[in-house]
């Protein structure tokens, strides 16, 4: 089975062809980072136009690299939400057009589900598993029961963790997107223990027994720290390292609560997995911290390969493989959705909650 996947929900135009036996036949990605650096963030209208300008060429290039034609495809998958609606519509309409013209099934992919399924592109991870979804727009803990079947256990009261990285990095004078730049800056810290003592940050809402996130307070703490600091390169590296460390600790702290709840909810599940996915999962400190925490609690941390952690076409194509195998194709009347919570996938197909 060969599936074409199209991703256009934010600022990456991604197209890939993936097979059901886990081969990525092609994976082309055009980043709009340079386009959006001038404004310090994504301008939705500009992003949508940039997807439109390049998508046809990228689809042609993806098929060429895979050594196939449209006729060899078994289905066409496109992100139909959630995301910036203009961009989502561009990719979705392109996918529908290819599906209609070549008489192939159309697969409407939920971008969040694609992140949550991407680690399965590398190896079989049996359901149910725990998902920590950390991206620019979302910070959630979910249980993946099956394809199209998720329970939301935690989300954020305000900003997503990727947003917290990006906005804090911007305050530090780093370019868009801030997450990877902040990580690079933090790598210049010479003594992490001293940096944490000099620039302390704390886990938000630590006393709360609820599994929930909030990142706006940390953003304010960053502002206050910068305001009273001489912003030399050394000091900024120390602040970045201490800040990154508290974000990693915060995610770990809430993951521990979720792992305990998972064990209570699924007492017979052997060898449970914790999956970390979404763009922020490209952060090495966060991966390492979660890896240690997971193994201390009897879980194995699984993550997508680095190149598929941030938005890309292969994750959409792989989700397309999984959805098609589960019989979840979509009509051409499917609408693009700016908001599309994973829990709604069940009801969308007529299943009961
Ligand atoms: O999943 P993604 O590519 O797009 C969304 O669906 O939102 O995630 C993008 C987010 C951005 O906030 C970006 O700064 C963050 O992921 N990110 C990182 C790193 N690479 C990307 N954050 C921290 N460290 C990184 N290495
Ligand atoms: Zn994403």
């Amino acid at each position: 089975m060969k599936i074409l996947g199209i991703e256009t929900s934010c600022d990456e135009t991604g197209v890939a062809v993936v097979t059901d036996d886990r081969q990525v036949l092609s994976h082309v990605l055009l980043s709009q980072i340079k386009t959006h650096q001038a404004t310090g963030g994504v301008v939705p209208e500009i992003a949508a136009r940039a997807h439109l300008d390049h998508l046809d060429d990228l689809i042609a290039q993806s098929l060429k690299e895979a050594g196939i034609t449209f006729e060899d495809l078994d289905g066409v998958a496109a992100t139909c939400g959630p995301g910036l609606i203009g961009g989502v519509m561009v990719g979705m309409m392109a996918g529908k057009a290819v599906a209609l013209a070549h008489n192939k099934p159309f697969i409407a992919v939920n971008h969040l589900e694609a992140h949550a399924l991407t680690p399965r592109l590398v190896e079989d991870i049996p359901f149910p598993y725990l998902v920590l979804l950390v991206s620019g727009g979302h910070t959630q803990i979910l249980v993946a029961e099956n394809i199209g079947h998720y329970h939301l256990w935690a989300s954020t009261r305000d900003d997503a963790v990727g947003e917290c990285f990006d906005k804090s990095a911007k305050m530090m004078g780093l370019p868009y997107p801030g997450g990877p730049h902040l990580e690079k800056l933090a790598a210049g810290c010479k003594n992490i223990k001293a940096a944490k003592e000099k620039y302390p940050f704390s886990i938000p809402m630590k006393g709360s027994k609820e599994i929930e996130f909030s990142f706006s307070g940390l953003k304010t703490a960053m502002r206050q720290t910068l305001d009273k600091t001489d912003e030399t390169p050394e000091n900024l590296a120390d602040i970045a390292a201490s800040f990154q460390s508290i974000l990693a600790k915060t995610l770990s702290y809430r993951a521990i609560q979720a792992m305990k709840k998972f064990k209570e909810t699924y007492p017979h599940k052997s060898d449970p997995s914790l999956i970390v996915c979404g763009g922020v999962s490209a952060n090495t400190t966060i991966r390492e911290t979660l890896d240690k925490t997971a193994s201390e609690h009897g879980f194995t941390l699984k993550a997508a390969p680095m190149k598929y952690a941030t938005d890309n076409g292969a994750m959409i194509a792989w989700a397309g493989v999984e959805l098609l195998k589960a019989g979840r194709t979509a009509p051409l009347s499917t609408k693009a959705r700016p908001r599309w919570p994973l829990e709604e996938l069940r009801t969308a197909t007529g299943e009961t909650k």
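The radius of gyration is 20 Å. The pocket of KG4 (ligand 1) is lined by residues 10, 135-137, 162, 165-166, 177-180, 183, 278-280, 282-283, 310-311 (CB under 6 Å).
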